[in-house]
Design a protein that fits this description.
GO terms for molecular function: DNA binding. This is LuxR family maltose regulon positive regulatory protein. It holds the Pfam family GerE. Keywords: DNA-binding, Transcription, Transcription regulation. There is one protein chain. Helix 12 (192-206) runs antiparallel to helix 13 and helix 20 packs antiparallel against helix 21 (346-363). The chain has five domains: 110-221, Arc Repressor Mutant, subunit A, CATH 1.10.10.10; 222-384, Serine Threonine Protein Phosphatase 5, Tetratricopeptide repeat; 386-496, no CATH class; 526-645, Serine Threonine Protein Phosphatase 5, Tetratricopeptide repeat, CATH 1.25.40; 653-708, Winged helix-like DNA-binding domain superfamily/Winged helix DNA-binding domain (Arc Repressor Mutant, subunit A). It is an all-alpha fold and 720 residues long. It contains 40 helices and two strands.
């Protein structure tokens, strides 16, 4: 062939590589090689072949499904097309294609499998049981002396062997050929498959690949060995990824086998919790808690059951469970719970139970008790569990932000996020509490718009694993950052917990008060709360000062919570009441007391909730003339500026542009599209406009803007 003239060409066609010394021709670029991978059809070619043989147009989706099924193998595509030729619904035929399609199986049996030597066919049938093989695996499971030579021969003979990308030395069998081999093995030697899987597991276990070993043991129905390996796993840096895998593994074990191993059931429940399958975890843990377990195992069951509080809208159900878990840990300090993947040590169970108790109490509205539990969770032992420490710090920061301890809340939120960065937990749901705490701090300082970004991150993190409690708190924060119809759509499952119900009611009452009305109370408050504040404020605003004085005295007699925000709210409200009664000296005393308590944390919200009536008093008290007092005054003027004809000077150019859209029927999404901004940005701008206008709804904003001449009221009725 080397002596042929240049205009002569030779074509070699063979199933195997011919030993003819191609190297020199490859170097001289004289050789064009077309191998099996180049002959595989793509979707377009498959579609053309199917259409030609079937005699009808075959759509792209059907063609793609056939390509995936056959891996582009020409004969497989052709045999599938023969079935389509006589089918009324080609799409349905493809949906019903099975891995053991009779035409394909017959072809492969006659043309390939039956022509192999018995020992080679037997080895291939054993290898077909495995997803991927290497020389070592071949020697371990197929009774072959030279694994490398065996695989090289298969590849040379084009026996449907495919190299695994990115894993040198590893191969897999073509899907259709593998299906035939497995089908033949099960028909001729049904007892062999499980033994092959166990032998492969032994090989992978010796190679240090425990995960693959577990997979093969489970497929081989070696339940005891598989569970032994799973229960022996140690801590893993990627806990959530490993948890999802463990949940999958243990769910493959028959329930009647699994139930005999309490540790396996416990680990399944823990893994389900960490991988987001909370309902299944709760059911499992509740059944376990009712069983006769050892004390150590019961400690595990109660601690992780209490942790489910963050996924439930019913904190009252879990507060008692958390108390029971803590009591059991205290009563049996030497119980020695079994070690399950490093997630069941006594200090960690203590940390989980304390945080769960704190979260339950927080959602029940017992904020001071919640702070105590969450602070106790941050013992020195908690340093060994950085991800759980992020949870504890963030939850404590939320409780502190709601209490008015804003400096401490900021410090704990920042510490949580610093730990998050150190452990590389970006995108993990654990920091959701810390981001929400940051948003709440901004709201409490009267800088609601500045908290929008933190709130968005908190919502995304909490929604990633359906943390219902946190999503409800985020909904409250959203209502405070974006008034009324601008509130973000923060979805939370189930009814709101008591803390959230109180907060939402107080927001509704305040909105009614600002509109000049008074919202209906379901029942008078029995102790100081945000709702009690609005109840008294509504009476003062309506001029019913005697009744307001009586209610305030009743609430003070019942006891004002010792947290800063409650004391400040009570004094700020009393200052307004005294002012309304004409007792200016007493009003100044109460306002000064409130400002003194609030200034270190720059807690502005109690004064902003009272509103502009406090403005005149600020210049008459020492703290009111200091920096913090001037900030409060500025924000109160901003609230009262709806009655100032100079308001237009306070709007930014972008706000002046957006205010023109208020009278239209455009939604927020429509406005965002026309302004080339995101919907969240539009919401933030409109929230600022509402605040500057001193209103709480779009209709009220239109009315006030018309009064100020910000647009012609005659025009907006005709805008569509």
């Amino acid at each position: 062939m080397d002596l042929l003239p240049p205009n002569a060409h030779a074509i070699f066609s063979s199933r195997v590589d011919l030993n003819l010394g191609w190297s020199r021709h490859r170097l001289e670029h004289d050789l064009v090689e077309i191998r099996q991978r180049e002959l595989a059809f793509d979707d377009e070619t498959t579609g053309k072949v199917l259409s030609a043989i079937a005699g009808r147009h075959i759509g792209p989706a059907t063609a793609a499904a056939v390509t995936a099924q056959t891996e582009g193998w020409a004969a497989g595509v052709q045999l599938t097309a023969l079935r389509l030729r006589f089918a009324d619904d080609p799409g349905r035929v493809v949906e019903e294609l099975t891995d053991t399609d009779q035409l394909v199986m017959n072809y492969l049996s006659v043309e390939v499998l039956d022509g192999l030597r018995p020992e080679r066919r037997g080895a291939l049938m054993r290898l077909a049981v495995l997803d991927e093989v290497s020389a070592g695996v071949v020697e371990a499971v197929a009774d072959v002396a030279g694994g490398d030579d065996f695989l090289t021969a298969l590849e040379r003979d084009s026996l449907f062997l495919v190299r695994v990308p990115g894993r040198p030395g590893w191969f897999r069998l073509h899907r259709l050929f593998r299906d035939l081999l497995i089908y033949r093995l099960r028909a001729t030697e049904p007892a062999v498959e499980e033994g092959v899987l166990e032998a492969a597991a032994d090989w992978f276990l010796a190679a240090g690949d425990t995960d693959t070993a577990v997979d093969y043991l489970l497929r081989g129905r070696r339940w005891t060995r598989a569970m032994d390996l799973i229960l022996g796993l140690g801590p893993d840096p990627s806990e959530e990824v490993r948890a999802a895998k463990i949940a999958h593994w243990l769910s493959m074990v028959p329930p009647e086998v699994r139930v005999a191993r309490p540790d396996a059931v416990l680990l399944l429940a823990i893994a389900n919790t960490m991988s987001g399958h909370t309902r299944s975890a709760v059911d499992t843990l509740q059944r376990l808690a009712d069983r006769r377990l050892t004390v150590g195992r019961r400690q595990i069951a109660l601690a992780y059951l209490a942790a489910e509080v963050q996924f439930s809208p019913h904190p009252e159900l879990f507060a008692g469970i958390a108390d029971e878990a803590l009591a059991l840990l205290a009563a049996h300090p030497d119980a020695g719970p079994p070690d399950l993947m490093g997630l069941t040590s006594r200090p960690l169970l203590q940390l989980i139970s304390q945080v769960s108790a704190g979260r339950a109490l927080l959602m029940l509205g017992r904020i001071d008790d919640a702070r105590a539990h969450l602070a106790a969770a941050l013992s020195p032992a908690a340093l060994a569990y950085p991800r759980h420490r992020v949870h504890a710090l963030g939850s404590l920061a939320v409780a502190e932000a709601l209490s008015g301890l804003l400096t401490s809340a900021s410090e704990h939120a920042n510490e949580a996020l610093a730990v998050e960065r150190d452990i590389g937990a970006h995108g993990h749901p654990a920091p959701a509490d810390a981001h929400l705490a940051r948003a709440l701090v901004c709201i409490q300082r009267g800088e609601a718009g500045a908290g929008a970004a933190s709130l968005a991150v908190a919502v995304a993190a909490a929604a990633s694993n359906n943390r219902t409690q946190l999503l409800w708190l985020a909904h409250v924060a959203s209502r405070l950052i974006h008034p009324l119809d601008l509130a973000d759509d923060v979805e939370a499952l189930g009814p709101p917990p008591p803390l959230v119900r109180q907060a939402l009611l107080s927001i509704s009452l305040r909105e009614a008060r600002l509109e000049g009305g008074r919202g209906a109370l379901p029942a008078p408050a029995t102790e100081w709360s945000a709702v009690a504040f609005e109840e008294v404020a509504g009476l003062v605003g309506a001029g019913r000062t005697a009744q307001a004085r009586e209610r305030l005295a009743q609430l003070r007699a019942a006891g004002v919570q010792p947290n800063p925000i409650a004391l400040i709210e009570a004094d700020a409200l009393t200052a307004w009441l005294c002012l309304a009664e004409g007792h200016r000296v007493a009003a100044r005393e109460h306002l000064e007391a409130a400002l003194q308590r609030a200034q270190d944390d720059r807690l502005a919200r109690p004064f902003l909730r009272v509103g502009p009536p406090l403005l005149d008093l600020l210049d008459e008290v020492p703290t009111g003339r200091a920096e913090f007092g001037r900030v409060i005054a500025e924000r109160l003027r901003s609230q009262g500026s709806a009655r100032s004809e100079r308001l237009v000077d306070e709007l930014t150019p972008r706000e002046r542009e957006l205010i023109g859209y208020l009278p239209t029927r455009y939604t927020i999404a429509d406005i965002a599209e026309r302004c080339f901004l995101s919907t969240n940005t539009i919401k933030t701008h409109l929230a600022h406009i509402y605040r500057k206008l001193g209103v709480a709804s779009r209709d009220a904003a239109i009315e006030r803007a018309t009064e100020l001449g910000l647009f012609d009221s005659a025009e907006h009725h005709d805008v569509i």
